[in-house]
Amino acid sequence: MQDYRRNRVPGGTYFFTVNLLERRRRLLVDHVGALRAAVRTVRDRRPFHIDAWVVLPDHLHCL
Fold first, then answer.
1. Is 2 a member of any domain?
2. In angstroms, rounded to a whole number, what is the distance separating the alpha carbons of residues 1 and 22?
3. What is the helix (H) or strand (E) element at residue 62, kind and residue range?
4. Digit-coded pLDDT (tens) for 5-45
5. How many CB atoms lie within 10 A of CB 18?
6. Nearest-angstrom CA–CA distance, 16 and 61
7. ∠ CA 34-38-44 to the nearest 5 degrees?
8. How many domains does the chain have?
9. Does residue 22 form part of some domain?
10. Domain, as residue range, for 41
11. Residue 9: exposed, middle, or buried by beta-carbon count in 10 A (0-12, 13-18, 19+)?
């Protein structure tokens, strides 16, 4: 795994991408309701803000 340096600034913004292991699957769009529920659950426990995100069939981008 890469050794990325993180500039930990309170209130900072991060961009990240998450890929499915099996890139030919459509799990993210087929189960977008479950993805939203999971994000909501985590946000209730650890508050954060999503400026924008793009959900594609096999990966997502988030800012």
1. no
2. 19
3. strand 59-62
4. 677 778 788 889 999 999 899 999 999 999 999 999 999 99
5. 12
6. 6
7. 145
8. 1
9. yes
10. 16-62
11. exposed
Token digits for 20?
A: 């499915």
Q: Could you tell me if residue 43 is inside a domain?
A: yes
In a domain, 34, yes or no: yes
Q: What is the pLDDT of residue 13?
A: 83
Taking a C-beta distance cutoff of 8 angstroms, is the pair 53, 13 a contact?
no
Q: What is the DSSP string of 3-61?
A: -------TT----EEEE-SSTT--HHHHTHHHHHHHHHHHHHHS----S-EEE-SSEEE
- Evaluate whether 49 touches 37 at the Cβ level (below 8 Å): no
Q: What are phi and psi of 4, to 5 degrees?
A: -80, 145
The whole-number average pLDDT for the span 53-63 is: 94
